[in-house]
Amino acid sequence: AQKITQTQPGMFVQEKEAVTLDCTYDTSDQSYGLFWYKQPSSGEMIFLIYQGSYDEQNATEGRYSLNFQKARKSANLVISASQLGDSAMYFCAMREPYNTDKLIFGTGTRLQVFP
Amino acid sequence: GAVVSQHPSRVICKSGTSVKIECRSLDFQATTMFWYRQFPKKSLMLMATSNEGSKATYEQGVEKDKFLINHASLTLSTLTVTSAHPEDSSFYICSASPAGGPWHEQFFGPGTRLTVL
């Protein structure tokens, strides 16, 4: 079964607009972590934001926020005020420390920001 | 944030040769390092988990005799692709978890692009 599902292979957004990238996950563990990474064409994986399963508030990091809906098992990434430099692949990932303790990635969403 | 380096960043080799890729944590000690493989337009797939001083744990379907991993120190792990073939061409990325750090911290290297002719 897919642990992490990203249903949007590609997304377009106009500069300065907000965009939401979807991510749903599957786990029976109570303790887990959810991550978003950005991968530009250079290939490096850039950590954006982390949400722990016990965190009651949604994580925020600058223009990035994570819309964590535990009951729905979703962890969508919201990017506000998009910039041209935000164009990249975005990966959602999950780690279960008391299970496999491995970072499992979704298939990614390619975001393109246009002027 | 913590820095992880990889060397080389890009390598082209002939079929049948072996290639060694280094992964170093520059400003922290890493008890655990991870090796991933990424095909074009695909996601990262974990190949193996490397713990300092012990044998690596390989994921199902990954040939341990083909992808040799050595985690000789707390700051260095190496991946050797033995007898490389064109199908081994891929983007290889390592990551490292700082010793004593929060469990969820994992820092990625910039990746190594391997092309086997």
Keywords:
A: 115 residues, mainly beta, six-stranded mixed β-sheet, 12 strands, globular, B: mainly beta, seven-stranded mixed β-sheet, four-stranded antiparallel β-sheet, 54% strand
Encode the helix/strand succession of chain B as letters: EEEEEEEEEEE
> Which term fits the overall shape of chain A?
globular
Average of pLDDT of chain B:
93
Q: Could you name the ranges of chain A where pLDDT drops below 50 across 5 or more consecutive residues?
A: none
Straight-line N-to-C gap of chain A: 39 Å
Largest sheet of chain A: 6 strands, mixed
Mean pLDDT of chain A: 94
Q: How many E strands of chain B?
A: 11
Tell me, briefly, the overall form of chain B: globular
Q: Which class of secondary structure composition applies to the elements of chain A?
A: mainly beta
Share in β-strands of chain B = over 45%
Radius of gyration of chain A: 14 Å
Rg of chain B, Cα atoms, Å: 13 Å
Number of helices of chain A: 0
- Helix and strand content put the structural class of chain B at mainly beta
SSE succession of chain A = EEEEEEEEEEEE
Give the CA-CA distance, first to last residue of chain B. 37 Å
Percentage of residues in DSSP E strands of chain A: over 45%
Provide a brief overview of the structure.
The complex is a heterodimer of chains A (115) and B (117). Chain A is mostly beta strands and 115 residues long.
Please explain how this structure is put together.
The complex is a heterodimer of chains A (115) and B (117). With 115 residues, chain A is an all-beta fold. Chain A contains no helices and twelve strands. In chain A, strands 2, 5, 6, 10, 11 and 12 form a six-stranded mixed β-sheet that branches. In chain A, strands 3-9-8-7 form a four-stranded antiparallel β-sheet, with no helix packed on it. In chain A, strand 5 (33-39) and strand 6 (46-52) form a beta hairpin. Chain B is mostly beta strands and 117 residues long. Chain B contains no helices and eleven strands. In chain B, a hairpin with a 2-residue loop joins strand 7 and strand 8. Chain B is globular. The model of chain B has no long low-confidence stretch (mean pLDDT 93). The interface between A and B is medium-sized, with 21 and 21 residues.
